[in-house]
Amino acid sequence: MPIYEYVCSDCGLKFELLRPFSDSSKKASCPRCQKNAERIISACASFSKNEAGEAIPLAGTGSSCSSCGPTSCNTCGL
Ligand SMILES: [Zn+2]
Q1: What is the pLDDT of residues 12-68, one digit of tens each?
Q2: Phi and psi, residue 60, nearest 5°
Q3: How much distance in Å is there from the Cα of 30 to the middle of ligand 1?
């Protein structure tokens, strides 16, 4: 399952969810305040791909990506 990033429209908390692609456009609930959270369209989430093409989480890297901007990503190709 792909990892999606969301940001709470109320408290601004960012969090990630593993959910099926079919649910990717659905609203998520903030784990802190239970309000609606919007999905962040980001190619630079805190996961990478292994040789088999599977997404693997990178522990402790957060969602920052030093090699690309917020709307484009040379590394990820998206
Ligand atoms: Zn919240």
Answers
A1: 999 999 999 898 888 899 999 999 999 987 555 456 667 777 776 665 444 455 555
A2: 80, 10
A3: 5
